Amino acid sequence: MTALVAVPLGLSSIPFALAADGVAGVLIWPVTVALVLAMPLRHRRPGTAYLVVLAAGLTLVAVSETVVFLPVYLAMPMVLYSVAAQGPGWARRSGLFWVVAAPTLVLARLVTTPGTVVGPTPGAVLVLWSVYAAPLAIGWIWGDATRSRRRWYQQLAERADRLERERRALDRAAVAEERARIARELHDVVAHHVSVIVVQADGARYALSTEPELAREALDTISATGREALTELRGLLGVLRGDGGSGPAPQPGVAGIPALVADSAVPAALSVAGRERPVPGSLGLTAYRVVQEALTNALKHGGPGVTAEVRLAWRRSSLVIDVTDTGGGPPAAGGSGHGIIGMRERVAAAGGRLETGPRPERGFRVHAELPLRGIEHEESA
């Protein structure tokens, strides 16, 4: 594209070159060729093209007053544009100086040379100076605006790239948080099912010789509990590994609490007050895990003959879970085990409140209140 401009400008300058004589007639040819070559050179080497144009212009002004209006002089504003747009800093600053200095030198040459068409009147000098300076100023200003626009686009691209990296970091943090939650799920699953298996295995061992039927029932419970544990573990580990395929089984919720209580190794009764209604999956899972962990604690620490009672109360703005047992005391270490900590974290994450501790009469109590945000319900409890 630049060649389509450079070649016609060079050809249109030939008549002026032929009309020149003396030293100007000799120098005008290499100077014209240099200006023509500077136009395509400005794209790759703007600093070099700028020096070529500067040297050519100063040479012509020095040797002749009649060739300062060659058409090929349009190479000067084009090169100034490239210098201001993408040239080195020294060339850009120097180019701004020559926007003013070059017309001044040309006018000084014309005014001080006898026989030129330009008189020393201020009006004529100002008009001619403006005509000569305008293309140079337009080229430099346009180039500087282009450079500023490119820098602005580059800053936008860098900002978009930074935001993209931050988004990916947040995604990784969310994945890590989700995997930490799944790890807690694994703890709850393993703790509950292994506790059931251990207690049932101990009971089967003691009853094997005296009450084979009870031992058989205990072994059936161990088998069923082990299969259930394996099913949940496969699903949760599949999520941790990022496996494709069918994916993990749906997480249990409030609807799974009756089956959990019925299948518990601890004899437990369930009572529900109020009108049940759908809840978010995360809140339902929290309710399920609270009941599961409370029954696991009763099994592990309640002692022989322990029983439990699970009460669910649906209130206007909360679901209240109350699990009590008749065991001989609280969980190990005064209730500071990982199960209690896990329950407390889950309930706090749901925006609820958890209370645990020994009962005045006997046994242990787990009391949780889970808020039901955005669910309108008339209290019927």
From TrEMBL:
Signal peptide bounds: 1-19
EC number: 2.7.13.3
Reactions catalysed according to its record: ATP + protein L-histidine = ADP + protein N-phospho-L-histidine
Sequence ranges assigned to domain Histidine kinase/HSP90-like ATPase in this UniProt record: 282-374
Keywords annotated in UniProt: ATP-binding, Coiled coil, Kinase, Membrane, Nucleotide-binding, Phosphoprotein, Signal, Transferase, Transmembrane, Transmembrane helix, Two-component regulatory system
Cellular component annotations (GO), alphabetically ordered: membrane
Record CDD domains: HATPase_UhpB-NarQ-NarX-like
Transmembrane segments: 49-74, 124-143
Protein name: histidine kinase
